[in-house]
Amino acid sequence: MFFSGSDSHQDTSGVVLIPTRLVWPYGGRRVFVSGTFTRWSEPVAMSPVEGCPNVFQVICGVPPGFHQYKFYVDGEWRHDEHQPHVTGNYGIVNTLVLTREPDLVPPNLSPRTPGSRMNMDVDNEVFQRVVTVSGGAMQEVTMRSSEADVEISRHRISAILSTHTAYELLPESGKVIALDVNLPVKQAFHILYEQGIPVAPLWDSYKGQYVGVLSPLDFILILRELGNGANLTQEELETHTISAWKEGRQLLYGQVNEHGRPAEKCLVHVGAYDSLKDVAVKLLQKGVATVPVIHSPSQDGSFPQLFYLQALQLRQDATSPYGFFDGQRCQMCLRTDPLQKVIERLANPGVRRVFIVEAGSKRVEGIISLSDAFRFLLG
Description:
- InterPro entries: AMPK1_CBM, AMPK_gamma/SDS23_families, CBS_dom, CBS_dom_sf, Ig-like_fold, Ig_E-set.
- One of its GO terms (cellular component) is chloroplast.
- By secondary structure, the protein is an alpha+beta fold.
- 21% of the residues lie in helices and 27% in strands.
- β8 and β9 form a beta hairpin.
């Protein structure tokens, strides 16, 4: 496994090579990769990713099949323990399985140089890359996915969502707990903590229906009110009911009707046999991230049965004032910030997690979710 150079050996036997991106994310000064696809003789030099000096990558042409490989980092052979690995002839090695060859380039794409070897440069999102070897000559051509391809993908996704139901998402065995709206808030939160669940639907026995959900966000908002010296005190939490808190929250945030009373809100839910397409549309239209799956055996909707509480994370608009990161609602804090600041961040509408970043570099050091804060404060 020792080597004298860094140029990779190119096979000219006519074998189809699949471009494969290999990554070493753990830093180093000089990083190479070698494996069965280089005959363990000529490691390939890896380059730092722009903007990420600790991440090295390279794209190698690899024939279909089972392969083993290792990284040569600053004179030491290493493997990535977070990727598939086995013990082989060269110690612990990473493994790679390529099961099929890529589609060949369509005939209407003209080559740049003579010969029969092709190389298609890759754009991370919309390009495909195909490498074939024959006779040593090389030519490059680029192909972008067409609008027709995009429409076909959309149609297939729509068909899948339309033919499957919410019931199919339910686990075979899951804990389902509902809380009565007349329970004291403090007792309700302790039940959630003891049962190990972050959210529960609310049952109104007078109306005979589910009327809402109690989530860690309610807990965070109550803590903020206590910290701000608002009307609600710690003593009142012993007797303050969920129903009273929900009404007070609506008044606090201006969710009232023309008479100044809390506005009537219907629980957003889905049926067990609603299609996944209908579920997705409802989540988007209602602007919610969590829906209970409720089934009623009678036509009038009486005697509803709660199957499960299914949570889905919606994409946040990049123009939102509450932050945007990788399609998820978020805020950022430093590890030195007080807990009160984290609570304030989590209390912002739509925020479900806070990213803990390093001062100056903004490097992410951790994530605190509503559920994390809930468990910590009640633990």
